[in-house]
Structures are given as structure tokens and as C-alpha cells.
Amino acid sequence: MKTANNKAWFMVLPVLLLVAINAIIPLMTVVNYSVQDTFGNNEFYWVGTEWFQEILKSERFHNALGRTLLFSTLILAIEIPLGIVIALAMPKRGPGVSICLVLMALPLLIPWNVVGTIWQVFGRVDIGLLGHGLASIGIDYNYTQDTLDAWLTLIIMDVWHWTSLVVLLCYSGLVAIPEVYYQAARIDGASRWAVFRYIQLPKIKRVLLIAVLLRFMDSFMIYTEPFVVTGGGPGNSTTFLSIDLVQMALGQFDLGPAAAMSLIYFLIILLLCWVFYTVMTSYDVDSSSGRSGGRQ
Amino acid sequence: MLELQNVSHKVGDEIYVDDVSLSLQRGELNILLGATLAGKTSLMRLMAGLDKPDSGTILFDGTSVLGVPVQKRNVAMVYQQFINYPTLTVFENIASPLRIAGKTRSEIRRRVNEVAELLQLAELLERTPETLSGGQQQRVALARALIKEADLVLLDEPLANLDYKLREELRAELPALFADMGAVLVYATTEPSEALVLGGNTACMYRGRVEQYGPTLELYRHPCGLKAARIFSDPPCNTASIICHAGQFAFPDSGRNIILPNVQPVDGEYILGVRPHHLSLQRNGTDDIELGGSVTVTELSGSESFVHFDFAGNPWVALLHGIKDFSTDTIVKFFIRPQHVLLFDAKQNLVSIPAPASGQ
Q: What is the model's pTM?
């Protein structure tokens, strides 16, 4: 077929331009920085994979990565079950539905830095409702000095801010289950647990996957809130990868190592998301391709 | 035996089930026939114990079951949607009622294999319901109902979501499947033809009320009233007002007289009911009644023709065999045997069905 129509290229050009400007060009700039060194004056020298090796061996990176992984793990471990429980407890019909939905959506509407500021003030020992309240009943709480307190504050803040997302996703999955399933389960005499395990969980599995992926990516990339609340402290105890990266790139202006680190960071997120996705969808693959007859 | 005595159920101001009294025997097929929202599902929910009636009692084998929760009533139900446990295999799905009942492994295995064989699911036991076709999924749901050996089996339009061919196939199997169980079997459907094929007893439902209950064929031939006739007719029963004056039946608008043999004429207003498929283009007997009109539209469906025509100001339809493509405004004469005419009084109760003249 020699009737190639070159006009088609003009049609995809806008998209190509858009993607190039907001994704490919910045990414390639980072790749470019990551393999070069500079001593100012816009002079660059080829250093190959030196920065990557340095980053991968650096203890600072290991520590930040460890903290970020721990943070994400805790966030997922708390928000996913909590979200499911709240979604299960929400009314399915009646006037309560809209009230619950609005209440649930409220935290999601607040910008990240405002959330940070709210909790920063909220937790202050001198004037904050939480900090001062705890101090006045004799609990020693100070997120600016105590590592555990700082972590607790960040985790509670994130749970407050983002559990709603998990709730709303699960709720949408739950209300989509036809009433007859519950009826059938009642007639069978199935227990509450069996209803959850064999009807509700399988039916919300897909939205749950989205919730896990979103919450993982978001918590793994968290920057604004800890930056506003703790600034990475006390010490380095809440310096997550993103905060570390910004300190390196903008604080110390080490463009090469920072670029190498962003790429590694990016690849880790990509890899972990792939792992989550593969694990959570593996059941579907088993049941549809592993059978002899296949779909009819 | 399941007995419902003056059972009513309201939700808010809406009456879902209105003063229903029925007595359903074990080992018999009972059909609930009615259009959507006629109260079939609501009535089934009451029978199962999913809802409590606002008034009236429900007896099972002579004892009231009103206080008994649904899981203790030994009920099985199959729905229009294909309801199975999505992540469990077909085997586990069928086995689930037995597992809840706490049967032994060997018994479960034996009985699941039996039932699977009966419903042609033996090859599919290791698959999950989502990988099956609709017909197979519904077979799994039926297997679950069958294996439970319930005292009351409720089938709520079980074939409505299946394609035509599968529906025919399953419909033929269904009564036989449940026949030996000795359970009270209730089957809801919107289709009169389905009720006729299934046989058994039928309860015609309209707006929460049971209009008539009895052997299916009997009900079809002798509807107690116009509503029952309308429900149990597809396409719906044709009707026209008719007046009896001085022993003569006449249509009020056209003034045309007809003779209804063997009907004792009492002066008054009546309603004439004619089932669409009883209308014929040929005269089949000397006492046939002629009921013609001008054609408004003709619908052809393969081997049948639906001829819509105007009969003395009423929109009527005739269901004819074969392709009869009348153009609009053609005047067509239709004939009907007298015993197929239904005569209702002004309160819509059946007065009498004319008998053919002697010798016919």
C-alpha cells in the first residue's frame, strides 16, 4: 500500500508537542544532567554512571529510601483497612448518604500546603489545640523535637487527609453491588464475614487496586506536608526521598547527583507500582488464562 | 404446604402486596404471572421471609413462620440476575449451602457431582462463574438452589436474562429438575406463553393483588375477570364495550348487532374480550362471529403477523399465522369461534362464554 497520507502527521503533531514539552523534554534534561558534572559557567563534563553509583552507595540515600518505604507501608496498612471499614459502615441510601459523602470529601478539597499548615499549627505545643491540649493533660508531645511524635503527626495527618479517597473509591464499588447478592447471602445463611469475603471484597477489588496504587504513589512522593510541618526534622528523621532530593538539587545545587537520584526515584515508583498491579491482578490472570476451555 | 392468609405489605404509602391469600402445595409448580411491578418479587420476598407482612399470616405445613428468620426457613431462591459467589469455583459455589449446613466432605463431593451432572456442569466445576456463559452461570445458581433440598424454592424470572434458545432449553428442563424434590415451587414470570408452557398452577397478579389462582390452562380458558384476561394474554386481550338491549347485543358506536349463541341476554352494559390469536381470516363454522375493521398497521415477525386494526373505535390487534401484509386502511373481516369470546359485565367480571351452537 503506497497511499500513505502524510497529513496524518499534522493531526498528531499537537499531541506530540504537548507530550514533548511537559514530559519528554524535562525528562531528557534530567537524564542529561545525571551523566554530567559542572563547575558553573555552563561548562559540563561527561561523567558516565558515576552519579548513579554514588547515589546507590550513599547512606543518606539508603536512609531516606528506608524512611519513605516505612512511611508508605504504614500509610497503606492504616488507610486501606480503615477506608474499607468506613465505606462498609456508610449508609447505602437515605438522607445520610449525601451528608456522609460531603463530610468524606471535605479533607480532599484542602490543598496540600494548607493541610500542612493546619497540622503544623494544630500540633504546636504553645498555641495548637492538639499540642497544647495534650500538654495540659500531662502528655509529653512535641513534634519538633521528638522523632516518634513527628512521625505520628505526619501519619495521622495523612490518614486524616487521604483515607477519604479510599473510602469514596470503596463506597462506589460497594453501592454498585446489586441488592440481590445480599438477599441471596441472607437466604443462604452466610455470615457477615462470608458476605464481605466472598461478595463485597471480590466486587470492590478493582477500585481497591486503584486506591492502593494512588495511595502508594502519593505517599511515596509526599513532599509538601512534611516540608511544611517538620521540614524533614527533627534531625533527619522525617527527611523522605522527595525532601532529600530538593535539598540536594536546590539547597546544595548538586544538579548531577540530584538528577541521578530523581531517575532512581522514578524507577523505584514505577517498579513498585508494577509489582502492586501484578500481584493484585494475578488472580484474574489465573482464572481466565489458566483454564482449559477459556471464555465461551 | 405454604399458606398465605390475607397477606399485605406496604412500603411507605405504596402497597406492594394487597390482601393476598394463596395455598400452594408441595410438589406442584406455582406460577406468579404479572407485568413488572405487579408485586411478584415482593410476594416472593414475603414467602421467603426477607420481608415481614404488615398484616396477615404465612403458614408452612400448618405452622406460622412469621417469626422464623430467613436463614432458618430452608428456602432457596434463584434470581433474574445470575447470582453466584464471584471468586469461588463452580464446585465451591454449588457446595456453599452444604458447607454452611456443615455436611461432611465426602457427602458434599458426592452431592455436588450428582447435581452438576444433572445440570450439565460436570466439566466446569473448576472454573469461576465469571468465565462462564450466562446460561451456564444460571445453571450454577439453579444447582445451588437444587442441592439445598429446600422446602420452598423461589424462582424469580430465572430465564429473563437468557437468550431465546437457552431460555427454551432451560424452560423445558426446569419443571422436571424440581419435580421430585417435594418442595413448594414458585416461579415468577412476565410472559403468559412461559406460564402456558410450564403448566402447573398460575396466580395472575395485578398491582399487588392476586386476581385469580388455579390450574394454568383453566385460568387461561376461563379468566375470572378482564384484568386476569389482560394479564394472561400476549399481545393483550382486545376489548370493546357492548350493550345488551331487548335481548340484542350491539356495539354502541356502530350500532352493529352480533349474536352470541347460548348466552342468556340480560339488558345492560358489557365488555367484550377477544384474544388476538383467536381472530381468524376464515370462517371456521356457521355460527362464527364477524368482527372486522380497517387496518392501521401490520407488523410482520417471521412466521406471524400482528394486524392492528380499528374495531368500532377500539385499537385491536389480530395475531395471524403466516405473512399477511395488509396495507393501511384495508377493510379486513375477521372471524372468531363463539366459545373464544369472553363476555364481562360492567364490573369486569366474567359473565359467560358463549358456547358453539349445537352440532358444532
A: 0.73
